[in-house]
Amino acid sequence: MNPVPAPQNPKKKALMPSGPLRRSLRAAGHHLTAIVQVGKEGATEAVTRQLDQALLDHELVKVKVGTESPEDRFEAAERLAAGAQAQLAQILGRTLLLYRKHPRKPKFEPGPAEDARGAAPEPRSAGRAPARKRTVRKGSFRKGR
User: Model confidence at 41, in pLDDT bands (50, 70, 90)?
Assistant: First the structure.
């Protein structure tokens, strides 16, 4: 018997795959403000150029799709991501979070120099564990601490 494949949500097909990178991008993008806005003309060539420059400057960019835009937010997201060679990390309401790795100084992924070295996480220092902060309970007989 062939199992019936689960239907894929067309809204999620444009998003980058789930993983630690996407989680860190979403966390970092939470506090950003929208730099690029899609207006009544839609995702035009000028908007794509502006997004391309913003991705070069910032690596992670929030884009706001206006309510007067002729395109659906998912259509606009696909066009902008394809036009700027970026990955779509999140669609939240009418706000898009787009990411493209910086060619020289990446913030979220290791760069080519770090990959060549095989950078591993720093080993924990051997020796004593860090001292824990003492807590004094409320109503303790030692109030002076």
Answer: very high
